[in-house]
Amino acid sequence: MAAPQRSWRQFGVLFGLGALGVLSLLPITIPQLRQLTLSGTPLPPLPVLVAASMIQPLLLLALAVATGVRLAPSLHLRSHVAAWAAGEPAGEPRFRAQVRIAVGLGILTALVVLALDHFMLPTLGEAGQGLRILQKRTAWTVITSVLYGGLTEEFLMRWGLATFFAWAIGKIVRTSGSPTTATVWVTIALTALLFGAGHLPAVHGQGLPLTAPLIARTVVLNAIAGVAFGWLYFRRSLESAMLAHATVHLTWTGLSLLV
């Protein structure tokens, strides 16, 4: 298979998977947009608003997927799905060996984050009470967290952003091939902080004031998870990070039902 054809096939397969996560937002987004149209403010028709709400995340997804397809091979960063789409030898045995550590690290990360959150929420006052209400999940929000978090966010943050940072740092320090240990950890930390900060708009969008304690709680807890996902991406594969990310959400949901 010619190189351009392989790249386009990789892009199409990976973008399609990430788009599933974006589309999973629709059952949550549509009622919110419908409320806006009923508020009396002059707005475009609901279908136009829904389509417009999908444009930005899909464009960001396309950019991230294209970045990973272009740069990840030169850094020896692996996606089993991308390799399959390119017609490379099957990587199922290698991925099966990664499942245990991905699931285990996902469960451990969820436990650490939940434990820290247990002690941080009481310090947030009314915002903490609001977060407790928001953390109650419906069946669909669990599905969305797995699809959007486990797939789309990993394409955006690890496959796209972390790959770009590792490539850019390599250019600055004039290294080639696999990133050095220092480059890996700088990239993991930087991406994790941005991953944590990226959750602030969602918190603010739920009507909670972004006080300093709430900002710290949101960034730190999500950054801890981001470090785990980043380590798995650089040391195992993109799919390992995805599996761990999904495991964190499922573990969080399961423990929330029990506690």
What structural class do helix, strand and pairing data support? mainly alpha
- The level of helicity is over 70%
Query: Strand fraction band?
Result: under 5%
Rg, alpha carbons: 19 Å
Order of helices and strands: HHHHHHHHHHH
Work out the number of β strands: 0
List the uncertain runs. none
Q: What's the end-to-end separation, in Å? A: 53 Å
- Mean pLDDT, all residues: 89
* Number of helical stretches of at least 4 residues: 11
Net shape: globular
Largest sheet: none
Describe the protein's architecture and organization.
It is a single chain. The chain is an all-alpha fold and 259 residues long. The mean pLDDT is 89. The chain contains 11 helices and no strands. Helix 3 packs parallel to helix 7 (139-173) and helix 7 crosses helix 8. The radius of gyration is 19 Å and the shape is globular.
Record keyword descriptors for this entry.
259 residues, 80% helix, mainly alpha
Quick overview:
The chain is mainly α. The protein has helices at 3-23, 26-37, 46-71, 80-85, 92-120, 126-134, 139-173, 181-197, 200-205, 212-235, 238-258. Helix 5 runs antiparallel to helix 10 (212-235) and helix 10 (212-235) packs across helix 11 (238-258).
